[in-house]
Amino acid sequence: MLRVEVKNLGPIAEGIIDLKPLTVFIGKNNIGKSYMAMLIYAAMRTSRHGNFPEFPLGLFDPPMRFFYDTNLLFRNSFVHTVTETKALDKGGRISSAPEIDLQQLREQVAKTTVAMADTFAKGLAHELQRCFATTVSRLKRQRQSVNGLGISFKTPKMYMKFSCSDAIIKAFPPEADISDDLLRRTLGKAMKQVERLHIKDAKETRAYILGQSVSEILMSLVKEIQLKPYYLPAARSGILQSHKALASYIVSRSPLAGIEDMEIPKFSGVIADFLGSLLRLEKRKPGKLNALAKFLEEDLTKGEIEIKVDEHQYPEIFYRSAAGRFALHRTSSMVSELAPIILFFRHIVEPGDLLIIEEPEAHLHPENQRKMAKALVGLVRTGVKVIITTHSDYLLDQLSNYVCRGQLSVEERAEQNVGQDDYLGIDDIGVYLFKHDEAKGGTVVQGIKVTPEDGIADEEFTKVAKELYEETYQLRRKLLVKS
After folding, report:
1. What is the pTM for the complete model shown?
2. What angle do CA 145, 150, 153 make, to 5 degrees?
């Protein structure tokens, strides 16, 4: 599980999020839900998209790139931790593997984690600026008493803390929980790999074993922050329908580049990534989430979402139903809003990825919002980690029912005529309320209680419903008296 803690990020004064298979953000508009979601997205991208230098000795293909310092690795005090050996058999195999002192290896891992955190801080600063389309210094909460922006990530084995008082994000020395058992297991695995590689030089052998061991240990410390992230922003239907006009404008103005000033609208990184994923999309074999895509098509749109690539390799999205085939701009707001979600399900997102969806209930009738909840549960059951922001009490109440349904036996769920995977375990979901705190002068993030018996305690929506009921009651009472 990944814990994310922030202080003074945009409107957020303070907040702690434990990332669950399904994480739900609720609260009023303009209060920081998207800020938190975009921070998590930026952190995941930082760990995956080239912001770490290569670790050349690892012969695997890691999703995260680690810091490697030859001077550190071959420093005399460290080389002496390896027993010198050149005993090779005739086939070139190592007859006696080098022995490595665990404490020295632990120290090397500690040095490398410090370097890794520094590198991560630089990458995170770049990614935050890209995702939010602004400088890091402007992401800090604008309040006179605020000291600076604070961000931390905690995995089961590692804690990384960062601060920013200006345009630079600085890393604190990370805290890592590295057991002797982990060190021994990792070294043993590296030594077995060496035997298969027929490395003859003793120095190369030491380098490989040490480098591979450090890489494997670092991966085990931070694997929770290595998910491949995707972001479906709010108002995606409008974004999707406007991008072609924007692309046409840029192309029409391109002959004047360098001659006249060109003003190009600025997109945030999450919108650019969203459009980029769809623009690069080709008609290909559906992925492992195609069943969920078909569910949304058949049960909500009552048709099919198609993608066609023209002669200029430009993808066009269409909606086909019994009434015919329509370009996306000629469909209802429900269809145009669901189309990118369906395409992401069918062609882009895979089990093990992180999918962030802002307002998945947008433009959906309450009955269809309940079906969207079913699709979200389906994502969880297939192994996708999901973060959503929502303003829908229907969606939240339906998810609450899935939590309660998780307490039923297989037989009891069968009696309800629901699928065996249509449930959420109590540990599958985390719900967080973003609420303004007058004393702190900003948003505070509070965890909402989720229990097996009652599901999600939706006091925020209940409060609004009570106020609305009270207003309706008073109005009708006055009208009755007046009549």
Report:
1. 0.84
2. 160
